Structure to design on (324 residues):
C-alpha cells in the first residue's frame, strides 16, 4: 500500500477518504496539508482539527510568523510515514484528525482579529472537536483561551514553553501584543496561574502573576524526566492548554523566530519533557512564533512540526486513557 501511494501520488490533502491512517506520499511532492491530513470544514466524526492562524501583527521585533503555518505544514510531510517514535501507539491511525485550514481574517482590520479568532475556535469546539493551532505570533493564544474557557470552564491551567513570560503589565485590553497576553488571560480569569507552569524562561520580568516558573537554567541543571514529573505534579488533572513558543528552544536549534534568546532548551530536552508529561489533562494546544524568513535551513519549522506532533500524541494519549 505504501509503495502504491508513492507511485500514484494521490494527494491525501484532498483525496483522503478516511481521516484516520498514515500517509506514504512522496515527502517532496503533492499538495501540502499538516501530516497529509485531509483539508476539510466537515467535522463529522472528527476528533481533532489542525488549524493555522497566519497572524504576526502583535510582534515586538521581527515579523514573519504569518508564514509559520505554511512552513509547518511543509515540514510535516516526513512525519506521517510511521507512528511517532516512543509513544507506543499510532495517533494518526486511531484518531480522526483533519486539517481545518487557516483562519480567514482581514489583515487591515487588526482590531477585529481577536473576536474573529475566538469565533473560529468556538465553531470547532462546538462540534466536540479539539484543536492544535499552528501560529502565528504568540498573541493568538489569548483569543483561543477565550474559546476554551467557555467550553471547558474557567479558569484553565496553562503549560507554557517559552523564553519570555508574556506577563508584562498591560491593562489596555484593546492593545494586541504578544508579550502581554498571559497577563490579560490571568486578569480576565481565564487562567489559574497557581496551577500553571512556564518552562524555559530566561528573560527578566518582575511580575510572574503567580505562575510556577521552571526557568531554562533549572531545566539544564536537572534531568528532563524530572522536570516533566514536576510539571505533572503542579498541573494534576486540571484541564490544561499547552502553548509552545518555538523560542523556548535555543537559537542553535530554532533560529527562525522573532525574539531569539540564548541559553534555551535543546530540541532533545524539549522532546523528552513533552513525551514524559503524558497523562496531563490536555484539552488543546498551539505552536507559535515560527518565522521562516529567518531560517533558510528550515530547521525551525521542522522542530515546530515535531512539537505539533507531540501535542497531537499528548492529546490522543489523554483521550485513550479516558476511554478505558
Amino acid at each position: 500500500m505504501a509503495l502504491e501511494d508513492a507511485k500514484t501520488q494521490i494527494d491525501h490533502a484532498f483525496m483522503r477518504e478516511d481521516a484516520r491512517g498514515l500517509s506514504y506520499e512522496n515527502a517532496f511532492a503533492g499538495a501540502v496539508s499538516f501530516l497529509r491530513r485531509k483539508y476539510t470544514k466537515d467535522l463529522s466524526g472528527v476528533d481533532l482539527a489542525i488549524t493555522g492562524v497566519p497572524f504576526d501583527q502583535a510582534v515586538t521585533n521581527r515579523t514573519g510568523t504569518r508564514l509559520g503555518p505554511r512552513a509547518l505544514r511543509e515540514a510535516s510531510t516526513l512525519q506521517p510515514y510511521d507512528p511517532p517514535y516512543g509513544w507506543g501507539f499510532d495517533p494518526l491511525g486511531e484518531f480522526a484528525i483533519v486539517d481545518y485550514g487557516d483562519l480567514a481574517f482581514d489583515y487591515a482590520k487588526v482590531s477585529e482579529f481577536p473576536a474573529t479568532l475566538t469565533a473560529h475556535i468556538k465553531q470547532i469546539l462546538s462540534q466536540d472537536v479539539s484543536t492544535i493551532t499552528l501560529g502565528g505570533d504568540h498573541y493568538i493564544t489569548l483569543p483561543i483561551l477565550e474559546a476554551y474557557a467557555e467550553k471547558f470552564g474557567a479558569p484553565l491551567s496553562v503549560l507554557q514553553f517559552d523564553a519570555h513570560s508574556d506577563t508584562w503589565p498591560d491593562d489596555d485590553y484593546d492593545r494586541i501584543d504578544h508579550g502581554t497576553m498571559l497577563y490579560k488571560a490571568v486578569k480576565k480569569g481565564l487562567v489559574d496561574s497557581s496551577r500553571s507552569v512556564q518552562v524555559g524562561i530566561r528573560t527578566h520580568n518582575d511580575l510572574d502573576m503567580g505562575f510556577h516558573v521552571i526557568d531554562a537554567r533549572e531545566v539544564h541543571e536537572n534531568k528532563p524526566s524530572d522536570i516533566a514529573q514536576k510539571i505533572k505534579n503542579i498541573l494534576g488533572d486540571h484541564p490544561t492548554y499547552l502553548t509552545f513558543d518555538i523560542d523556548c528552544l535555543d537559537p542553535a536549534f530554532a533560529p527562525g523566530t522573532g525574539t531569539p534568546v540564548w541559553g534555551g532548551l535543546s530540541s532533545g530536552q524539549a522532546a523528552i519533557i513533552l513525551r514524559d508529561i503524558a497523562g496531563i489533562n490536555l484539552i488543546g494546544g498551539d505552536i507559535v512564533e515560527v518565522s521562516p524568513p529567518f531560517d533558510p535551513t528550515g530547521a525551525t519549522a521542522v522542530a515546530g512540526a515535531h512539537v505539533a506532533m507531540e501535542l497531537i500524541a499528548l492529546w490522543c494519549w489523554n483521550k485513550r486513557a479516558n476511554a478505558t
User: Anything to note?
Assistant: The chain has a mean pLDDT of 95. The two ends are 31 Å apart (CA to CA). The domain at 2-323 is CATH 3.40.800.10 (Arginase; Chain A).
